[in-house]
Amino acid sequence: MAINGIGDEFDLISRYFAPLAAGAPGALGLTDDASIVDVPEGQDLVATSDSIVAGIHFFADDPAIDIARKIIRVNLSDLAAMGACPIGLLLSVILPRDTDEDWMSQFAAGLKADIDEFHAPLIGGDTVAGEGPLTLSMTALGAVPASQVLTRAGALSGDSIYVTGTIGDGTLGLGIAKGTLKGLDLSHENYLIERYRVPRPRLEFGMRLLGHANAAIDISDGLIADLGHICTCSGVGAYLDAESVPLSGAAQEALAQDKRRFADLVMGGDDYELLFTSPSEGDAALCDIAADLGVNITRIGAITEGNGLVVEPGKGLDLNITVGGYRHFR
Ligand code: ADP
Ligand code: MG
Questions:
Q1: CB environment 140-162: b (16+ within 10 A), e (fewer)
Q2: CA-CA 20 to 30 A from 145: which of 39, 51, 182, 216?
Q3: 277 CA to centre of ligand 1 in angstroms
């Protein structure tokens, strides 16, 4: 392959990707066929993969820096949900043939910013030119103390249900980017677009949840659907207090415009916050961890016996919610 003004894939790898492997000696400077991964003694290896495609998960004309950060962050968010510490990232790129040097350097700058911020070096990947839309696929490797990994399956009746951050910003940001949501305060619109384009993986917080949470998931499909995944995997039900779902100022403005939007906020995807359950007696410890890390957490309900999801509607909230297999609404 040859990319405008850059050369072939070997030039691309050595110029843009190899510098991002500097933190991982086992990556061999991305000059060999594969890299060597060292899993710390007493730890389990955790692996996850996520792909994003222009026109589906992001817009082709989004800033290259943000696209780079999104592919890293959606993957790190999965590690966060398992309580894992990142070891390294593998990135496969299928680049349109008209990709240029300027785009590539912005893209590499975005990768570097997050690789540095999250201490997750690039340790491999693949680089090809394609006829289709820009397609990025990443595999993230992480480590977690042996047998302590957090899964979706450990929720117990009586657990409190918590979320980090605020819910619904990702889907509202997508609405603004698509032009279907209009008329919000400009600073709110910018905030929401940023939340959609550059999610915040709750890595530190996820690691600190080990030993405190019984189950966790990152919210990528939407709060309701992802709570449903925890219920299915754990064989439990849940009670959700709609009024307590934490909303950003921007989401509150969107809701004030139209109460019917509440259902979108809890059913829309792309939040990349953590949803987790923990025994109620651990609430104080959780609050300490959250305060320590400067992360807001909110208790939004409780795990129940059985297998239904009961949503307690708040005053004035429109709750036309559909939740697949879970639907006992009051
Ligand atoms: P092969 O043809 O044997 O698969 P490549 O020439 O594709 O090898 O890749 C050479 C090295 O560069 C490998 O270590 C590979 O993991 C790495 N690499 C290729 N593309 C990327 C990329 N986009 N990001 C990170 N590493 C990459
Ligand atoms: Mg290859």
A1: bbbbbbeeebbbbebbeeebbbb
A2: 51
A3: 40
Please report the pLDDT score of residue 323 as a whole number: 53
Binding site membership of 278 for ligand 1 (Cβ less than 6 Å): no
Answer yes or no: is the C-beta of 11 below 6 A from any ligand 1 atom: no
88 Cβ below 6 A of ligand 1:
no
Strand 274-278 to strand 215-218: parallel, antiparallel, or no bridges (unpaired)? Answer: antiparallel
Q: Which residues pair with 93 in a beta bridge?
A: 127, 136
* H-helix or E-strand spanning residue 264: helix 262-267
Closest-CA residue to 317 (of 158, 179, 167): 167
Beta strands 85-96 and 160-164: pairing type?
Answer: unpaired
Please say whether the beta carbons of 245 and 294 come within 8 A: no
Distance, in Å, from the CA atom of 75 to the CA atom of 77, rounded to the nearest integer, reads: 5
pLDDT number for residue 313: 82
Ligand 2: distance of its center to the CA of 30 in Å? 11
- Find out whether 148 and 213 touch, Cβ atoms under 8 Å: no
Q: How far is the CA of 121 from the centre of ligand 2 (A)?
A: 18
Atom of ligand 1 nearest to the CA of 34: 14
Ligand 1 pocket, mutate which of 11, 31, 126 (most atoms under 8 A from CB) = 126
Ligand 1 atom nearest 122 alpha carbon: 25
CB-ligand 1 contact for 32 (6 Å cutoff): yes
Percent of the chain at pLDDT exceeding 70: 95
More confident residue, 297 or 308: 297
State if residue 8 touches ligand 1 by the CB under 6 angstroms criterion: no
Q: Could you give the CA distance from residue 193 to residue 177 in angstroms, rounded to a whole number?
A: 7
Reported as a single tens digit per residue, the pLDDT across 208-232 is 999 999 999 999 999 999 999 999 9
Q: Cα torsion at 236, 241, 242, 245 (round to 10°)? A: -90
- The arithmetic mean of pLDDT across residues 84-92, rounded, is 98
